[in-house]
Design a protein that fits this description.
The chain is of the alpha+beta class. It contains one helix and six strands; from the N terminus they run αββββββ. A three-stranded antiparallel β-sheet has the order 1-6-3, with no helix packed on it. It has a three-stranded antiparallel β-sheet with strand order 2-5-4, with no helix packed on it. The radius of gyration is 19 Å and the shape is elongated.
């Protein structure tokens, strides 16, 4: 949506707020990048550093071929991943 031109600053700010607040409230935006996490061939437990209940995760980088999946329920401290190969990954946790 294009912003109208020639509006007073306070009106423009309220329009921006209405458009940006839903984006900023998205849980993915409240995440952490975990870099250079070494996964073993098997189970690895990682402290996700969120200080709250985790809602999800995804890989942002991986240095080899591997199948990786979450092997324990999400919680407020750790992320438990199982890999079929030893790899180093970057993760986005949210």
């Amino acid at each position: 949506m294009a912003l109208p031109k020639q509006l007073p600053l306070d009106r423009m700010q309220s329009i921006w707020k209405a458009q940006l607040d839903p984006l900023l409230a998205n849980p993915i935006m409240q995440g952490n990048q975990l870099k250079n996490i070494s996964l073993i061939n098997g189970v690895t437990v990682i402290n996700h550093l969120l200080s709250r209940m985790q809602q999800g995760w995804f890989l942002t980088d991986i240095n080899g071929a591997a199948t990786i999946y979450r092997s324990q329920p999400l919680n407020d401290k750790t992320l438990t991943l199982t890999s079929n190969a030893a790899v180093t990954v970057n993760l986005w946790v949210y």
